[in-house]
Amino acid sequence: MSRLMRACLVAVAMLLPTASGAAEIKLMCPAPMRTSVVELVAQFEKATQHKVNIVHIPSRFIVERVTASESVDAVLLTANAADGLIKAGKLARRADYAKSSIGVAVKSGQPRPDVSTADAFRRTMLAAKSFARNEGAESGIHVLHVFEKLGIADAMKAKTKVMPVNTGYVAQLVASGEVEIAAQQMPELHAVAGVDPTPLPDELQLIIPFVVGVSAAPQDAKATEELVAFFTGPAAGAVLKSKGLNPP
Predict the structure, then answer these.
(1) Inter-CA distances, 31 with 3, 58, 170, Å
(2) Average of pLDDT values for 173-186?
(3) pLDDT tens-digit profile of 23-49?
(4) Which residues, 6+ apart, have CB-to-CB distance to 48 below 8 Å?
């Protein structure tokens, strides 16, 4: 290799960004936060040299794996779940991320259901030919409580299709025509193409605060804090709203 060529290669190498400041961050994320987190991670990776490895699993599995001391840098969880892990010494702290709510969805093009009041919701549910909810997750449990409160639990049982946790979004059953109406967290309804989501009325609503939990022993504390700052900064607000969430 000539001296001139070697000098050119050295000059080019000096212009390339160094990877010395890059870190790999392991982040665990449940289904309701999936779409917002994926978009924010893409923006974060573009703005920094860091790489974020997202583990998509249900919240209860996140709690189990973190409790068992699996290595992780940050987690997305409900505030209550994160507080339990902080108390157990598995997380160092948490930062507010977003507020999620419960809603129902019908196939796009169909008249939006009247769920403007508790009584309207009751009439709409009784008139529906088929309904779907998830099993075991917070939204599914809440909807069952609402049905009991409104005195329609037995009437809804025969026409309800239940989707086990971690098998997909309930609104997929609406999009495919398997059921007429479905209930789940609003960001999960927004994640499905071909459906129109509507939130429950205030008197039947459940607001679920989600937070970013910081591991008690992150692999790279500085990079993890950069991720948390990005997730909770001003740029995150527009993404959260577009995904059916509200800023904290």
Answers:
(1) 56, 6, 11
(2) 97
(3) 999 999 999 999 999 999 999 999 999
(4) 22, 223, 226
